[in-house]
Amino acid sequence: MQFLDAPILALESSCDETSAAVIHGRRIISSVVASQAELHSRWGGVVPEAAARAHIEAVIPVVDEALEKAGRPEIAGIAVTNRPGLVGALSVGVTAAKGLSLAWNCPLIGVHHLEGHLLSVCADLNGEPMPQFPLLSLVVSGGHTELVWVEEPGSYRMVGQTLDDAAGEAFDKGARLLGLGYPGGYAVQELAKCGNPKRYKLPRGLVKDPLNFSFSGLKTAMLRLVELEGDNLNREDAAASLQAAIVEVLIKKAMAAAEKLDASALALVGGVAANQALREGLKTSCNREGISFYTPDFSLCTDNAAMIGIVGSLRFAMGESSGMDLDPTPSAPLP
Ligand code: KG4
Ligand code: ZN
Q1: Pocket of ligand 1 contains residue 146 by CB under 6 Å
Q2: Helices 185-192 and 235-260: crossing angle, nearest 10°?
């Protein structure tokens, strides 16, 4: 498999991060992310209209900064997330990408957000080598909890998924109950450091099914715990118990799926892949089983345009491109 041997610009605006990056092959030349976390924290979740407006304000400065940091190279193509995501948010990136494609007379490619997360392990940020393929990928973010068999970049098979909430949602909803703001994954991780993960018993969903996940029972159990304990709740112990309930299930299932599918390589990607307990726990389990383990740099776990650029670079090299009829699409299967 090959990546385009020329600089391309990538844009990502599917949810609450406006991001632009310049990619050459799989090498990241520059990457800029403007987060809207503070804006949405006052509502405790992403407000689609507010997200779209904030993308409109941020997109041009973010693109300009990414180009400036890259030394303003001649751009050979533009990659943009066009699916899935919030339609108003997506349309800001797609419209900007179309305008730049026309202005610079270079091709455009629409990218599936999940494929971006999947190929984030291919990025060369600090000289990282390509991972080995095929590999089993655990994608865990605010919107996704999926196990995907990656035969090679560009060839994917969904093998398991959550039946209800995503792992990131479980972190965020638990965090909200603990008064930790939005998004709450990182705050739960930090509070959990001083807590006892065995203090509160929380459910582990669908333990017998190695390929699918369920986190909705955990959310309800957290709500009950907070109501029942009231002022007596030990927030550190609750955060540690919540994190353990999510991380334990993710590790157990990823390892069970790897065994079932006879995987010799495993990747951990998506926003929740930034979680230290998950990264370290999965790495230890993989080492024990002789499975190669890959996870990207923290900066490539939460939403970013660099991972979208890796996909664009691959797909341009495969001769693919999109037309000016490229539409933002709220939901779409993996390519
Ligand atoms: O990939 P991402 O930026 O957006 C989606 O595509 O959804 O993932 C965001 C999610 C949020 O739910 C956030 O709480 C979670 O990733 N997250 C974490 C950590 N950092 C971000 N969850 C647990 N531990 C972390 N350190
Ligand atoms: Zn994402």
Answers
A1: no
A2: 110
Q: What are phi and psi of 120, to 5 degrees?
A: -60, -25
Task: Compute, in angstroms, the gap from residue 132 CA to the centroid of ligand 1.
Answer: 25
Spacing, Cα 171 to ligand 1 middle (Å): 8
Check if 7-126+300-317 and 135-296 are the same fold.
yes
Cα 138 to Cα 256: distance, rounded to the nearest angstrom:
12
For residues 133 and 265, the answer to whether their CB atoms sit within 8 Å is: yes
237 phi/psi in degrees, rounded to 5: -65, -35
Enumerate the domain spans of the chain.
Answer: 7-126+300-317, 135-296
Residue 62's alpha-carbon distances to 21, 69, 199, 217, in angstroms, are 9, 11, 44, 39
Ligand 1 touching residue 175 (CB < 6 A):
no
The confidence score (pLDDT) of residue 320 equals 98
Residue-level pLDDT at 327: 97
CATH class of 7-126+300-317: alpha beta
3-state DSSP call for residue 51? helix
Ligand 1 proximity of 250 Cβ (cutoff 6 Å): no
What's the rounded Cα separation, in Å, for the pair 20 and 12?
A: 6
Closest ligand relative to 270 C-alpha: 1
Distance 268 CA to ligand 1 centre (A): 13
**How remote is the CA of residue 320 from the centroid of ligand 1, in Å?**
31
What integer pLDDT is reported at residue 29 of this predicted model?
Answer: 98
Per-residue pLDDT tens digits for 43-88: 878 889 899 999 999 999 999 999 999 999 999 999 999 999 999 9
Which atom number of ligand 1 is nearest to the Cα of residue 144? 7
202 token code pair:
């929380």
3-state DSSP assignment of residue 145: strand
- With 0.90 as the threshold, say if the pTM is over it: yes
Q: Which fold has domain 135-296?
A: Nucleotidyltransferase; domain 5 (3.30.420)
